[in-house]
Design brief:
By secondary structure, the chain is mainly alpha-helical. 81% of the residues lie in helices and 3% in strands. Helix 9 packs antiparallel against helix 10 (263-280). Residues 24-291 form the G-protein coupled receptors family 1 profile domain.
Amino acid sequence: MSVANIETFLRVVLTLIFCYATPSNFLVIQTILSNKELKTYNTLLYFAGIAFADTLAFFGYIQNAIWHPLFGTDIEQKYLVTCRLIAFYSRYGVQTSALLLTIATIDRCLLLYSKRWKLNYSRRPSLTFSIILIVFSIELLFHFHVLIYKGGYNTTTYNGSKTEQRNFACYLIKNLHYQSFYYSFYSKAHLILYSVLPYVITSICNIFVLLKVFHKRKQHIKTRTRSTQKNVTVLIVLSSTCYVLLTLPDAVYWEFFGKSVSNHLKRVIPYCINISLYINHSSTFLLLMIISTKFRQQLCVNMSGFYRKCFNNRIMPQVQISSKVNASIIISKVAASSKVPMSRTINAS
């Protein structure tokens, strides 16, 4: 199999994951926010925020997943607006998702170990919503400069002529002060906030969470509330573990092996890394479906209600027409029966 065929196959996989991820993330948000009981769990509210951040990240992945495989055009390297939007969403979405997952892991660890935290901050949706909005706002301010300074035009003048040609380059940064800020601070800060800190914090919190879970298993206490808390704990541990395993190749490859790989592998490895990133940002729905019983029940209720509305909208006009027909038949029969005695009385007279 040639490298071109492998690239085509990997592009198809990226497109399929993209088409699955966007509606599944919206289903996560709608299902959690539509249930009063699910909204009382801090962890599930954080996962709703993570699903929204993952959806924003896929707007940054739209070049590799949709435009290039289906239309064969590189809109990131062709237009200034798309260059800045793709660069902004790809960083803003993934970093916000990682930060919310880190906060959710810390919150779960504190809920298991601190009674004061459990009494004061547990089951408070307004506080969780405020934290999510603060995180989105801070990340917006941190990445907003990409929409202003990213990309630029190169002007080339031909010898012996006064004509100039402008060529667009997405990697170009013409402001020298911003160029030093971008490469010396912003790129490193993005790597730390997206990879290093979440890896360290989630790993440490997961160790403490698992120790607490194993300690509680020895007590053999089984209640409905404890089973729900156990499911939420398993959810946060699996989600953070998937995050570390699926995003680690991206951080390791581009930092250490990006320049020393052969040309054939340079064409294939980025697709494989993007597939692992896509799976990470589309795994929330699958994890909730596997672990959370209440999420599955609420999703079934929402889907049945949606199908019922669609079914009723299609059936109601036919029911109205048939009811009108039946009403006209009944009225005609009543009129006919009322006329028969009158004719009989006239003939008898």
